[in-house]
Amino acid sequence: xxxxxxxxxxxxxxAFLVGVLIYAAAAVYAWxxxxxxxxxxxxxxxxFPGVYFLATLLIPLAAPPVRRMLRTHLWIAFRTGFGQSVxxxxxxxxxxxxxxxxxxxxxxxxxxxxxGFPESAFAAYAAGIGVLLAQAxxxxxxxxxxxxxxxxxxxx
Length: 156
Known about the structure:
single chain, 85% helix, 6 helices, mainly alpha
């Protein structure tokens, strides 16, 4: 594999892992500031968002039209150098940090205003993590594609 492909693949893996770590940090924060029983919190932070995570993970892997669109997106991203430069990596980190700020602020607002549990923020973030994992898995499928592999190996 070319160096640029390895960097791109590592970027996909890293984006997923950073997303998971941010979600875990947000869940720990929410656990400490939001009222409710442990079962209630587990439902709202793990079980219900887990449905969204699984949906956004499985749909791109199981539905051929969605898989083709995501594979095309990944291939174009690779060919244009996204995920291989410092700037593009910073863009991804800033996007993830922005969503992290949203989930933290939404949780803080819910804790201080008593408006209820911010399950939509957790569900949306979990859905995003599902897409990130789907991308990381599809990158491995792309590199095994006999049509694309020569282009991957020749990439600068």
